[in-house]
């Protein structure tokens, strides 16, 4: 860092990398967030990619983005970017709306060719003027020329040279945010360990980008980002889907039940299948079935056979699995269903985020079929909630639906690799030898949790049949008796309600001064809501905040706690499903709503403004 | 473990039978099949505790309730997918699937062909009565064209599946066929199916006394049976008819039924059945004989051993695990992920 450079310290920064799918923007963003995390920053990332796998190069529909927020108190990838890196005119045009009004643009000026401008549907030859960008805010980098000079002796051809554009941009960004080039080189070395020539070229290019920023724009301020205090340990950058997969593996280790996944590819849940398929190296059996129905059914078979059984999907797949999940409700078998929510209905917006499967998860089955519904709040919380979902399933003999969403599933943040002692043991509800000797029946329930017992095939003396038909409460044989059905319906409902005894109580944040207003959310909107609540309280607007993770059952004290507030404001990415659900439990109480269904996460500003408006009323 | 010697298993049919009395209609073919299954299981000698019987929905799918094994009466059409899960999760179990023609080939058609293709080691008993019984008499995917039923009052205008053809089309490695009243043949087919590693399909021509009585009569009838059916046994001549007076011979690319001693045909011209052949051309022709011009083939028609899915999953998992040698999740993460320390 040169002495004369003006260094500004900031709490956090948001950078958005945008380019063609093939431009390597995700890799550049990923390396930047990783080295920032290594410097002690908190990180949150969010890829925003098109549904088309390879749209035409340079076209508006082919642009993909990758947003990274680093710094202190980072709970979201940021409402708007402080810096936009745009690799071509199409990326500039489509991503400008995500940049703050006073944000900085880094752009490849040599990509402004007539052909590219035409593909990006510009009317004039001057995109900067056409888009109304203040020229002082844009840093135009002649990328092709710089790459040609830097790599002149590398022996690479033109095409291979241009592939290094992302690293050039990364170099400039590293200069701007005071990141040492050496830490980038370390990452690249690991990535290209087997391709020294590729490493050499990329390393030179990163340095060239850094030097370019430093030499040509040394009057611009360079930012130093604040670090935060984190618990000591080993950290990695983890996406929500990977965290979900690993949380299930942790549950398998803690319960002694081998992990089985029956699944079918569907955006944005497929990475869970990918990860668990790789984890054959930990003994996981992850099988790709012929359809969504077979995915859940194979898992039900595996559950009957005594395994920790999981199926993973997204909204349309959850619809297809409904009947199977109903069987798991009736047979009272443990099962984890992971639903990574996306925009619906029908095929909807497959790559975008929403919270619109809540009612389907709660009620989307025939008959009285209660089950446990939980939701994860962040990429790293996916680990905990996958673990907890599995724990509840095998300890309470019930299917559990875990709701995540495209935003937290694809987003990432820094995560401390847990140690064995960090998670509790899981005790599957196996039938005991004494019970078998005493004449155990498959639907026997004891204790206050109303759960039946798990008798795994291979167990001597416990041969039994389960299925979708109603069974007699006492004898466990098929029964169509009316009063018996009532008794069984009640028992299954009580069983799910009893899970409330095993989950944490509701403890709102920012509650010290007994505010009369509470902001409520559930699942993946946590980061935005928490940031909004922090901001509101900092501005003197006293608002308590609570993000629900346990939806059915709710925490045991939730309804009583909520009754204590004058204003309950529920913010969610649907038209009011959780608000309606709470309303059922809080008759007569007005529940205020902040809703959005645009396939995009909330902006913090939208929450802040919405809460303020209700507080003024 | 499946015992190869049927005299020393230590189990008797009653060990597989529970106290529930079967609630199928009096005279239903399912009663006979159930009894034969108990006998076949005793002969195989797999303990009831290591046996799981998985069914879908329909009359035949009630069968697990009459077994003293592990069992699951599931949802319509999904038995193959659930059985695949049971077997893949725990390959030590012997897994049977019981489905009817509607359950297995209509609503469950996709799971059927994929189970067969995947070659998971389950034994599928396909009860074919060419009718929906439990919903009181609609045509099924195996009903013949023109079949009159409550849902086809003017006759169907669609062609049926021939289960064997579907099985071969899905690259099946085991196919056998029997008739509900032929107890020994059914038992032999079931035992062979269980001993076969991989998906085994046993089609049992079953009579629904209420809604489709006599549908199989023209070949099942005691008087016609010898002329209209042939029982195939691996390594034996393809003989049929009263006193085995007839045989099957090669006729160009097809088959022909001849009377031995007539038209110059001798016993030497009669084909020998090879159920174990990898090439399924001749087996498929045998399976497609319908009892009219050529006799309906019964017994084990194809029995070719190939790698079973559940075993392959287990093998691959064990191999990868041994190669990577991770002790647990944390170990894997620390050894494979880019990480940083915070002190």
Structure description:
- The complex is a heterodimer of chains A (617) and B (343).
- Chain A folds into four domains: 7-225, Pyruvate-ferredoxin Oxidoreductase, domain 3 (3-Layer(aba) Sandwich); 237-422, Rossmann fold (3-Layer(aba) Sandwich), CATH 3.40.50; 433-501, no CATH class; 517-616, 3-Layer(aba) Sandwich (Rossmann fold).
- Residues 1-5 of chain A have low confidence and may be disordered.
- Chain A contains 22 helices and 22 strands.
- In chain A, the strands form four sheets. An eight-stranded mixed beta sheet of chain A has the order 7-6-5-2-4-3-16-9, sandwiched between helices.
- The longest helix of chain A is centred in the middle third of the chain and has 21 residues, at 196-216.
- With 617 residues, chain A is of the alpha/beta class.
- The relative contact order of chain A is 0.09.
- Chain A is globular, with a radius of gyration of 27 Å.
- Chain B has a domain at 13-215: Thiamin diphosphate (ThDP)-binding fold, Pyr/PP domains (Rossmann fold).
- Helices cover 31% and strands 20% of the residues of chain B.
- In chain B, strand 10 (239-240) and strand 11 (246-251) form a beta hairpin.
- The model of chain B has no long low-confidence stretch (mean pLDDT 96).
- Chain B is built from eleven helices and 14 strands.
- Chain B is α/β, with parallel strands linked by helices.
- In chain B, the strands form three sheets. In chain B, strands 2-1-3-4-8-7-13-9 form an eight-stranded mixed beta sheet, sandwiched between helices.
- At the A-B interface, helix 1, strand 9, helix 10, helix 12 and helix 13 of A face strand 1, strand 2, helix 2, helix 4 and helix 10 of B.
- Strand 17 of chain A pairs parallel with strand 2 of chain B.
